Amino acid sequence: TQLLEQSPQFLSIQEGENLTVYCNSSSVFSSLQWYRQEPGEGPVLLVTVVTGGEVKKLKRLTFQFGDARKDSSLHITAAQPGDTGLYLCAGGGATNKLIFGTGTLLAVQP
Amino acid sequence: EAGVAQSPRYKIIEKRQSVAFWCNPISGHATLYWYQQILGQGPKLLIQFQNNGVVDDSQLPKDRFSAERLKGVDSTLKIQPAKLEDSAVYLCASSLVGFLAGGLYNEQFFGPGTRLTVL
Predict the structure, then answer these.
(1) What's the gap in Å between the CA of A55 and the closest CA on chain B?
(2) What are the pLDDT digits (tens) for A32-60?
Protein backbone atom coordinates (compact mmCIF):
# COMPACT_ATOMS: atom_id res chain seq x y z
CA THR A 1 0.00 0.00 0.00
CA GLN A 2 1.36 3.38 -1.01
CA LEU A 3 1.33 5.97 1.78
CA LEU A 4 2.29 9.64 1.82
CA GLU A 5 3.09 11.07 5.24
CA GLN A 6 3.04 14.83 5.67
CA SER A 7 4.70 16.81 8.45
CA PRO A 8 3.92 18.76 10.40
CA GLN A 9 0.26 17.85 10.78
CA PHE A 10 -0.61 21.31 12.15
CA LEU A 11 1.22 24.62 11.86
CA SER A 12 0.25 27.98 13.32
CA ILE A 13 2.53 30.90 12.48
CA GLN A 14 2.55 34.69 12.39
CA GLU A 15 2.23 36.69 9.20
CA GLY A 16 5.64 37.22 7.58
CA GLU A 17 7.23 34.00 8.83
CA ASN A 18 8.62 31.28 6.58
CA LEU A 19 7.59 27.63 6.72
CA THR A 20 8.28 24.25 5.11
CA VAL A 21 5.91 21.32 4.75
CA TYR A 22 7.27 17.86 4.02
CA CYS A 23 5.73 14.94 2.15
CA ASN A 24 7.46 11.55 2.47
CA SER A 25 6.89 8.07 1.15
CA SER A 26 8.70 4.76 0.76
CA SER A 27 7.17 4.46 -2.72
CA VAL A 28 8.35 6.01 -5.98
CA PHE A 29 5.89 8.23 -7.81
CA SER A 30 5.95 9.35 -11.44
CA SER A 31 4.52 12.73 -10.45
CA LEU A 32 3.92 14.68 -7.28
CA GLN A 33 1.27 17.33 -6.91
CA TRP A 34 0.44 19.84 -4.21
CA TYR A 35 -3.12 21.00 -3.57
CA ARG A 36 -4.55 23.63 -1.21
CA GLN A 37 -8.00 23.24 0.26
CA GLU A 38 -9.97 26.01 1.94
CA PRO A 39 -12.87 25.35 4.33
CA GLY A 40 -16.03 24.24 2.53
CA GLU A 41 -14.27 23.82 -0.79
CA GLY A 42 -12.57 21.06 -2.72
CA PRO A 43 -8.78 20.90 -3.14
CA VAL A 44 -7.26 23.13 -5.84
CA LEU A 45 -4.07 22.17 -7.66
CA LEU A 46 -1.05 24.40 -6.97
CA VAL A 47 1.73 22.61 -8.87
CA THR A 48 2.85 19.34 -10.46
CA VAL A 49 6.45 18.10 -10.47
CA VAL A 50 7.48 15.10 -12.56
CA THR A 51 11.31 15.03 -12.60
CA GLY A 52 13.49 13.91 -9.67
CA GLY A 53 15.25 16.93 -8.19
CA GLU A 54 12.88 19.36 -9.90
CA VAL A 55 12.26 22.72 -8.23
CA LYS A 56 9.32 24.94 -9.14
CA LYS A 57 8.53 28.40 -7.86
CA LEU A 58 5.09 29.96 -7.75
CA LYS A 59 5.41 33.51 -6.34
CA ARG A 60 6.19 32.95 -2.63
CA LEU A 61 5.83 29.15 -2.86
CA THR A 62 8.74 26.85 -3.73
CA PHE A 63 8.15 23.17 -4.47
CA GLN A 64 10.80 20.48 -4.69
CA PHE A 65 10.62 16.85 -5.81
CA GLY A 66 13.21 14.56 -4.23
CA ASP A 67 15.93 13.03 -6.38
CA ALA A 68 14.52 9.54 -5.79
CA ARG A 69 10.95 10.74 -6.46
CA LYS A 70 9.77 9.52 -3.06
CA ASP A 71 9.46 12.82 -1.26
CA SER A 72 8.65 16.47 -1.77
CA SER A 73 8.64 19.75 0.11
CA LEU A 74 6.69 22.98 -0.03
CA HIS A 75 8.31 26.15 1.26
CA ILE A 76 6.34 29.35 1.77
CA THR A 77 8.21 32.63 2.18
CA ALA A 78 6.67 35.53 4.13
CA ALA A 79 3.38 33.75 4.83
CA GLN A 80 0.17 35.74 4.60
CA PRO A 81 -3.26 35.09 6.17
CA GLY A 82 -4.52 34.17 2.70
CA ASP A 83 -2.18 31.17 2.74
CA THR A 84 -4.28 29.58 5.49
CA GLY A 85 -5.70 26.22 4.51
CA LEU A 86 -5.13 22.48 4.29
CA TYR A 87 -2.13 21.58 2.15
CA LEU A 88 -2.18 18.17 0.49
CA CYS A 89 0.49 16.39 -1.46
CA ALA A 90 -0.60 13.71 -3.91
CA GLY A 91 1.47 11.11 -5.72
CA GLY A 92 0.67 9.87 -9.20
CA GLY A 93 1.67 6.50 -10.65
CA ALA A 94 1.10 4.36 -13.69
CA THR A 95 -2.67 4.55 -13.47
CA ASN A 96 -4.79 7.67 -13.63
CA LYS A 97 -5.05 7.70 -9.85
CA LEU A 98 -3.65 9.93 -7.10
CA ILE A 99 -2.63 8.89 -3.59
CA PHE A 100 -3.20 11.82 -1.24
CA GLY A 101 -1.04 12.61 1.75
CA THR A 102 -2.23 12.96 5.33
CA GLY A 103 -2.50 16.75 5.08
CA THR A 104 -0.97 19.78 6.81
CA LEU A 105 -3.32 22.33 8.31
CA LEU A 106 -1.75 25.80 8.17
CA ALA A 107 -3.03 28.83 10.07
CA VAL A 108 -1.36 32.19 9.44
CA GLN A 109 -2.22 34.75 12.12
CA PRO A 110 -2.30 38.45 11.11
CA GLU B 1 -15.73 26.82 -18.00
CA ALA B 2 -18.11 25.42 -15.41
CA GLY B 3 -16.53 23.46 -12.59
CA VAL B 4 -17.52 20.17 -10.99
CA ALA B 5 -20.99 20.44 -9.49
CA GLN B 6 -22.15 18.48 -6.46
CA SER B 7 -25.40 18.31 -4.55
CA PRO B 8 -26.53 18.52 -1.89
CA ARG B 9 -23.87 20.59 -0.11
CA TYR B 10 -24.97 19.38 3.32
CA LYS B 11 -26.92 16.38 4.54
CA ILE B 12 -27.87 15.26 8.04
CA ILE B 13 -29.37 11.80 8.50
CA GLU B 14 -29.81 9.25 11.25
CA LYS B 15 -27.88 6.01 11.28
CA ARG B 16 -29.40 3.20 9.24
CA GLN B 17 -31.00 5.69 6.83
CA SER B 18 -29.96 5.89 3.20
CA VAL B 19 -28.52 8.88 1.34
CA ALA B 20 -27.46 9.71 -2.20
CA PHE B 21 -25.03 12.26 -3.58
CA TRP B 22 -24.92 13.59 -7.12
CA CYS B 23 -21.98 14.81 -9.20
CA ASN B 24 -21.80 16.52 -12.59
CA PRO B 25 -18.19 16.58 -13.84
CA ILE B 26 -16.57 19.10 -16.15
CA SER B 27 -17.80 18.62 -19.71
CA GLY B 28 -15.57 16.27 -21.67
CA HIS B 29 -13.75 14.79 -18.67
CA ALA B 30 -13.70 11.03 -19.09
CA THR B 31 -12.49 10.12 -15.63
CA LEU B 32 -14.56 10.68 -12.50
CA TYR B 33 -13.61 10.01 -8.90
CA TRP B 34 -15.44 9.83 -5.59
CA TYR B 35 -13.43 10.50 -2.43
CA GLN B 36 -14.22 10.38 1.28
CA GLN B 37 -12.48 13.02 3.40
CA ILE B 38 -12.44 12.96 7.19
CA LEU B 39 -12.02 16.44 8.70
CA GLY B 40 -8.40 17.63 8.50
CA GLN B 41 -7.20 14.55 6.61
CA GLY B 42 -6.38 13.81 2.98
CA PRO B 43 -9.09 12.48 0.66
CA LYS B 44 -9.41 8.71 0.34
CA LEU B 45 -10.40 7.32 -3.05
CA LEU B 46 -13.64 5.34 -2.97
CA ILE B 47 -14.20 4.66 -6.67
CA GLN B 48 -12.80 5.72 -10.06
CA PHE B 49 -14.76 5.64 -13.32
CA GLN B 50 -13.41 5.81 -16.86
CA ASN B 51 -16.42 6.89 -18.93
CA ASN B 52 -19.15 4.61 -17.52
CA GLY B 53 -16.85 1.75 -16.48
CA VAL B 54 -15.34 1.17 -13.03
CA VAL B 55 -11.51 1.33 -13.01
CA ASP B 56 -10.91 1.01 -9.25
CA ASP B 57 -13.37 0.36 -6.42
CA SER B 58 -11.00 -1.51 -4.13
CA GLN B 59 -11.64 0.84 -1.19
CA LEU B 60 -15.39 1.12 -1.60
CA PRO B 61 -17.28 -0.61 1.27
CA LYS B 62 -19.50 -2.52 -1.12
CA ASP B 63 -21.81 -3.87 1.57
CA ARG B 64 -23.24 -0.37 2.04
CA PHE B 65 -21.81 1.92 -0.65
CA SER B 66 -22.70 1.87 -4.34
CA ALA B 67 -21.96 4.21 -7.23
CA GLU B 68 -22.94 4.45 -10.85
CA ARG B 69 -22.17 6.55 -13.91
CA LEU B 70 -24.69 5.23 -16.38
CA LYS B 71 -24.18 7.51 -19.38
CA GLY B 72 -20.55 8.34 -18.74
CA VAL B 73 -21.39 11.84 -17.51
CA ASP B 74 -23.20 12.37 -14.18
CA SER B 75 -22.59 10.05 -11.25
CA THR B 76 -24.43 9.09 -8.08
CA LEU B 77 -22.93 7.73 -4.86
CA LYS B 78 -25.29 5.99 -2.44
CA ILE B 79 -24.91 4.83 1.15
CA GLN B 80 -27.42 2.34 2.51
CA PRO B 81 -27.60 1.94 5.46
CA ALA B 82 -25.46 4.76 6.87
CA LYS B 83 -23.26 4.32 9.94
CA LEU B 84 -21.92 6.94 12.34
CA GLU B 85 -18.41 6.51 10.93
CA ASP B 86 -19.66 7.57 7.47
CA SER B 87 -19.77 11.18 8.67
CA ALA B 88 -17.35 12.94 6.34
CA VAL B 89 -17.11 15.16 3.29
CA TYR B 90 -17.70 13.32 0.02
CA LEU B 91 -15.76 14.88 -2.83
CA CYS B 92 -16.25 14.32 -6.52
CA ALA B 93 -13.44 15.06 -8.98
CA SER B 94 -12.94 14.73 -12.71
CA SER B 95 -9.89 14.76 -14.96
CA LEU B 96 -9.05 14.83 -18.65
CA VAL B 97 -6.39 12.17 -19.03
CA GLY B 98 -7.68 8.64 -19.33
CA PHE B 99 -4.44 6.72 -18.79
CA LEU B 100 -0.94 8.00 -18.09
CA ALA B 101 1.97 7.41 -20.44
CA GLY B 102 5.51 8.43 -19.39
CA GLY B 103 5.76 12.06 -18.42
CA LEU B 104 2.05 12.71 -18.47
CA TYR B 105 0.07 13.45 -15.37
CA ASN B 106 -3.52 14.13 -14.57
CA GLU B 107 -4.92 17.23 -12.94
CA GLN B 108 -8.03 16.53 -10.94
CA PHE B 109 -10.66 19.21 -10.57
CA PHE B 110 -12.74 18.92 -7.43
CA GLY B 111 -16.28 19.90 -6.60
CA PRO B 112 -17.10 21.65 -3.31
CA GLY B 113 -18.11 18.38 -1.66
CA THR B 114 -21.11 17.18 0.31
CA ARG B 115 -20.75 17.30 4.09
CA LEU B 116 -22.57 14.29 5.56
CA THR B 117 -23.44 14.07 9.25
CA VAL B 118 -24.81 10.78 10.53
CA LEU B 119 -26.50 11.02 13.94
Answers:
(1) 16
(2) 999 999 988 999 999 888 888 989 999 99
Partner residues linked to A49 by β-bridges: A32
> What's the burial of A24, exposed, middle or buried (CB within 10 Å: 0-12/13-18/19+)?
middle
Question: Measured between alpha carbons, how far apart are the two ends of chain B, in Å?
Answer: 37
CA-nearest residue to A32 within chain B is B105
Asked if the Cβ–Cβ distance from A96 to B50 is below 8 Å, we say yes
Which amino acid is it at B74?
D
How does pLDDT run across A2-27, given as a tens digit for each residue? Answer: 789 999 999 999 999 999 999 999 99
Mutate to test the interface with A, among B9, B41, B99, B114 (most CBs of A within 10 A): B41
How far apart CA A43 and CA A39 sit, in angstroms, is 10
